[in-house]
Structures are given as structure tokens and as C-alpha cells.
Amino acid sequence: MRFNNILPELYVVDFQKSLNFYTKILDFKLEYEQLDPLFAFLSYQGSQLMIQQEDDDEEWHNGKPEYPYGRGVNFQIETKDVQKIIDLLAKNNYPLKRGVKESWYKVNDTFHGHREILIMDPSGYLLRFSQSLGVKKE
């Protein structure tokens, strides 16, 4: 397995609830896990992240963690099918934070389109699933 150059490790409030959310609802693949501390390495269509049960190890914290975790950041996760994510969430009665939005980002003279949704995971991290709509010229 090749590891991405940047890998977010998310401390979570309830490890089992978060693991179920990512693997059973969102269809992330569990690459491996450890029991002490509770930790999992997950992947989804080329994206990778790690989750670990919250602990009191001050070395790894820059402040007291409080819900919602991850304030001020969102994680963009590329997907081939945003509708599939929407359907998986609906099947599990899990709410969207923001429904489908089409966004176009300008890079030089080209616009890159994305179909996006926002979700808050069980610990409050904001996830933005993004499906490419292709490119168009200015």
C-alpha cells in the first residue's frame, strides 16, 4: 500500500461509532486497526485518513478537544458518485449538513466543476464529498 503524503489523524469521541460511520455507512475500507490505543487506518477511492480514540496525551494536542472537533477545517474527499454517498446516508438516517451544491473553481482560464455535499461525522469533523463535473474554458 502506498501512503499519501499528507494523512489526517482524527481523534474521535467514540471510536466504535466513528469506525461504523466510516466503514458501514460511507463505505470506507478498513486497511488496518490497532487495539491499544484504539486506532484505524481507512481509505476511500484514493483518500486516506486515520481515526483514534480521544485520550489525554497532551503531546498530541494543542488545546482541550471539544465537540464539534475540527472547527475551522473541512476535509475534501473525492468521490466518483456523490449520489451514492447521499443514498447511503439516507438509508442510515444520517443527515447532510448541506445538500448538493455545484461549484466551479477558476484556475487560470479554466473552470473546474464539482458536485459537493457536506457531512459532519460523529465527532463533528466536516467532510466535503466532491465529484468532478469536468472542466470548461472561460
Radius of gyration: 16 Å
Class derived from helix and strand content: alpha/beta
How confident overall, as mean pLDDT? 93
Please give the order of strands in the largest beta sheet.
Answer: 1-4-3-2
How many helices in DSSP terms?
Answer: 2
Write the layout of secondary structure elements.
Layout: E1 9-12, H1 15-25, E2 29-35, E3 38-44, E4 47-53, E5 74-78, H2 82-91, E6 98-107, E7 110-120, E8 126-137
Parallel strand pairs: 1-4, 5-8
Antiparallel strand pairs: 2-3, 3-4, 6-7, 7-8
Keywords:
138 residues; alpha/beta; 2,3-Dihydroxybiphenyl 1,2-Dioxygenase, domain 1; four-stranded mixed beta sheet; 2 helices; 8 strands; 15% helix; 46% strand; globular
Give an account of the 3D structure.
It holds the Pfam family Glyoxalase. Belongs to the bleomycin resistance protein family. It comes from Candidatus Roizmanbacteria bacterium CG22_combo_CG10-13_8_21_14_all_34_12. This is Bleomycin resistance protein. InterPro entries: Bleomycin-R, Glyas_Bleomycin-R_OHBP_Dase, Glyas_Fos-R_dOase_dom, VOC_core. With 138 residues, the protein is of the alpha/beta class. The chain has a single domain, classed as Roll (2,3-Dihydroxybiphenyl 1,2-Dioxygenase, domain 1), CATH 3.10.180. A 4-stranded mixed sheet has the order 1-4-3-2, covered by helices on one side. A 4-stranded mixed sheet has the order 5-8-7-6. The longest helix is centred in the N-terminal third of the chain and has 11 residues. The mean pLDDT is 93.
